Amino acid sequence: MKKYIKHLSLLASILFTLSYAAMAQPGFDDDVEDTPIDGGIGLLVGAGIAYGLKRVYKFGKEDKQDA
User: Fold this and answer.
1) Rg, the chain, Cα only
2) 67 vs 3, 25, 60, 64, CA distance in Å?
3) Of 4, 10, 33, 44, which residue is least crowded by CB atoms under 10 Å?
4) Contact in structure between 28 and 34 (CB atoms under 8 Å)
5) So what's the pLDDT on residue 24?
């Protein structure tokens, strides 16, 4: 169980680190505003991680009851 949590936390930290480096556009002249891609993607990723953690916790809890 701890192995899964360590791997999941490592994956989450890598994904969050990479998301800060992503840019929507390299840049334009001064008369155009740059627009980021975010649009809720961060919230969807966070919800996916929370759902995954819930599933891992539930799976571990079922394993303990079966033993």
Assistant:
1) 18
2) 19, 54, 11, 5
3) 33
4) yes
5) 59
Reported as a single tens digit per residue, the pLDDT across 32-52 is 666 666 668 888 889 999 999
Q: Which one-letter DSSP state was computed for residue 23?
A: -
pTM metric for this prediction: 0.41
Strands in the chain per DSSP E: none
Residue in 40, 41, 37 with CA at minimum distance from that of residue 25: 37
Is residue 25 within 8 A of residue 36, CB to CB? The reply is: no
Give residue 43's pLDDT: 85
